[in-house]
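Following the same procedure, the fold was encoded as tokens, giving this record:
***
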Amino acid sequence: MKKSVACIAYHNQKVLIAHRNPVGQMGSRFEFPGGKVDDGESEEQAIKREMSEEFGIDVSIIEKITTGYFSHNGKESSLEVYLIKVSHDGMTEKYRLTEHTDYRWVDIDDIPKDNFVDSDLSIYPEVKKYLKTLQEKN
């Protein structure tokens, strides 16, 4: 089974989403940042590599939120979902995008309003529940 990671960056009660480049089956859709876990790579290593390659930033991994499962082109994959902390919010100093055309910080309740990739929508209820619990603690 293939494995991917989804990075939930949560800052000032907003979550980071990114708009994919307009290529491929999932082009021009929104997603949580992340990507494939390469052979011989840990989930944590994949998170750090993906965020560095796709956004030009360093991140800290806080904790695992959940695991989701999806099928893409007939291949089963797991989606390992982690709460991360970004080195900065990308507003004053812009992120260096390589796989996306844009990014923004949104309220978790607004996620379904955007054209989100199916795999991320499948984990959305668990992510929303997790972030609401986090908000209540703070």
